[in-house]
Amino acid sequence: MELPEIVSHLFAAKKAKGLSFADLEQILDRDEVWIAAVFYQQATMSEDEAKLLVTALDLDPIYIDLLTEYPIKGIGPIVPTDPLVYRFYEIIQVYGLPLKSVIQEKFGDGIMSAIDFTMDVEKEVDPKGDRVKIVMSGKFLSYKKW
What we know:
Blueprint: H1 5-17, H2 21-28, H3 32-39, H4 47-57, H5 62-68, H6 83-107, E1 110-124, E2 131-142
Antiparallel strand pairs: 1-2
């Protein structure tokens, strides 16, 4: 997967400043997962948000324009090779249809919005090994009849 050049610039600036996504969450008043999506060009910032990020990362003002452009979203029709990203792909391959069935049983024929959507990542300490807890919340959208 080839990422846009801006991605490496944003991560380099973040590292140089010693900031985490949680730190940026405090600065921008936006969720750390959404901010990470901006870094990967999967979300668009407002001009005010972009100015805050550019200031926090001490970037050239040209980045304001780049961060407010509408990106091409998605990583393409490929099987991801990064092990962590692949596990999400695997989860959807194995549990995608079961989740669809359960969601449609509870809500009817429709989808969960990825536009009106939030996600949270939490660390659960466990003596058998720490666990990753991901909570996704998307608005249910019924299919329209016409």
